[in-house]
Amino acid sequence: MYYPLALEKRMDRVESFLRSQQNSPGLYINYVLANRLEDEAVIIMEQLMRKYKQETAQAPYKAAYGVYRKDMNAVRKAVHNIRFADYRAYYETILLMEDGESGQARNRLESIKKQWMKSALLAEIELKAGRHEAAIEHAREAVNSSRGVYRYVLYKEYERSLPQVVKPLA
Fold it and tell me: Given this model, what pLDDT does residue 2 score?
């Protein structure tokens, strides 16, 4: 179970693993959000909120779902309860970008240790600034420096928004 979750680089295997996790909402949500399955996303979020009662356990799911729905108020409410510093900084950076504070967002990247997170956020910053080629380069770096579920989610997102990033990987 650990290998496809954290180490696998082949998207077909990760997708197969995630699809088989329908009884584990904490894992299955990655498949649902990556593939933009609207109806299932609502159901999975309800299951997660019933399963996890503590705010700190719910916060990462609420933040991810908020970004998925482009509901920055939900992200703002959840971000303070996220326990892990890298994830908190990741969502704070997203909030800064949405508020038009790209300079502060770039500064916030310094506190993130995970390379795939930095690169994915840099790709978004460059895309918002209109520097398409730089965004593609950072997006490729994000996908190449990630593995497992994170790679799958990035791959699916870039498949929709920047298809030239994933074409060489297919």
Answer: 61
What are the distances in angstroms from CA 96 to CA 43, 62, 93, 131, 161? 29, 18, 5, 18, 20
Closest CA to 165 of 120, 130, 106: 120
The alpha helices in 35-166, defined as continuous H runs, are 38-51, 55-69, 72-79, 85-98, 102-108, 115-128, 132-144, 148-161, 163-166
Degrees, nearest 5: CA angle 143-96-84? 60
Task: Tell me how far apart the alpha carbons of residues 83 and 60 are, in angstroms, rounded to a whole number.
Answer: 9
What local confidence, expressed as pLDDT, does residue 143 receive? 95
Between the two ends of the chain, the Cα-to-Cα distance in Å is: 24
- Between 45 and 169, whose confidence is greater? 45
Residues 6+ apart with CB under 8 A from 107: none
The predicted-structure confidence for 120-152, as pLDDT tens digits, reads as follows 999 999 999 999 999 999 999 999 999 999 999
Q: What is the pLDDT of residue 168?
A: 64
* Of 34, 61, 57, 68, the residue nearest 153 (C-alpha): 34
Q: How many angstroms separate the CA atoms of 37 and 101, rounded?
A: 31
